[in-house]
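Task 17 of the worksheet. Students: predict the tertiary structure of the chain below and write it out as structure tokens. Keep your answer in the requested format; marks are given for formatting as well as content.
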Amino acid sequence: MSDGLDLYLPVSTTRPAHALETALRAAVVDGRLPVGTRLPASRALAADLGIARSTVSEVYSRLAAEGWLESRVGAGTWIAGFPRQAQPAVAQRQSPPEYELRGGLADAGDFPRSQWSAQTRRALAEMPVSAFAYAPPEGAVELRDTLAGYLARTRGVAVTAAEVLIGSGFGDLLSLTCRAIRARGGKRIAVEEYGHERHRRIIAESGLEIVAIPVDSEGADLADAEADAVFLTPAHQFPTGVPLSPERRRAAVEWANARDALILEDDYDGEFRYDRRSIGALQALAPDRVVYLGTSSKALAPAVGVAWAVAPPELLPELLRQRSLSGVTPSGLHQQVLARFLDSHEYDRAVRRRRATFRTRRELFAQLLAERAPELRPGGLAAGLQCLVELPDAAAEERALAAARQFGVALEGLADYRAPGGNPDRAGVVIGYGAVSSARAARALALAADALANGLSF
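Model answer:
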């Protein structure tokens, strides 16, 4: 088309004017042609549709007279809007909360744009032509090599590049791993009684039956679990914040060995402990039993779209088979950029910056909570992007959440994370201090503390 706009408009050869008029109205109403769109010139559209130019001109004139189109002298024909009688019904949308304090989220506002741009330019300059083709199913070798070194250095993971599998996000790799377990004959997987509901949906979609296991001050308790695998957050249980104790870590490995089972280790924020050195990865205790899972979304941003797994060698062929069946391939360009971002230690610097930010926010929240509700305190490790404030009962949890909604603060209670079969008697509110912007953090955390104080009021 001469002016560059392609349109799909079904037009009948028997009644072309009527068909074109109907098709244009429908395209405006359903949003395919938004208000302010410039339409092709009548000559160009007629040529594309195989109809007379006079037919297009006639339809344009008629729709302009009705208010659908606007003809501008010397500037063509434009979508003007809906005539009053044709305005589509618009569903009433609820305004989002002013402050985002849900757990497990990080603020993308401090994404290291200039550093990422520099490494993107470096990758584009250095990448061979072959690197612009589809990436290998296991991931770009440059990223797998660099990640193996980084994970061994910072998380104590026992790994070689050959055991690293790159994914397009944590959910992608969780799905692949669960489908691989199912394909190898697994039927049941144990999950912590509190965790992401989305993760449980992904697991269930693979065909595995989910069974909840208790979580207490020592982390998950696998003593009575009858399953072929277990999904754990051992470094910093999500969302309660407790680490898996040394005794429970050993017990988990013994459990897996006794049942020929797998442990799926979600190390979602293991780099973000700020009171002392981070707890190392569980994977190092049993590399042949643990699938280690990590992601760049907390240190950088979800838009990077890169996650990683370190898998036992015997599981890798099935994981790659599931990768082939999924049809999903992570961005080869993002893998090349991330490899250089890690290699230049920009990733380490990004983690340190965010670690300092999260520490400051947790300390501020603890201070605010002590002032407004001295009976309460943040639980769990001084680590990560969130903490749990436990409350006396479910009624207090609901009162606190209701107050938060009134204050414009997005919060979730412990009940929002509870798996079916989990303990219904434990109550609390999860305070996520990772996603709110720095300029708004103090106000948001003060409102959260006020909401929790309201939860104690009768």
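Marker's comment: The radius of gyration is 28 Å. The first helix runs from residue 16 to 29.
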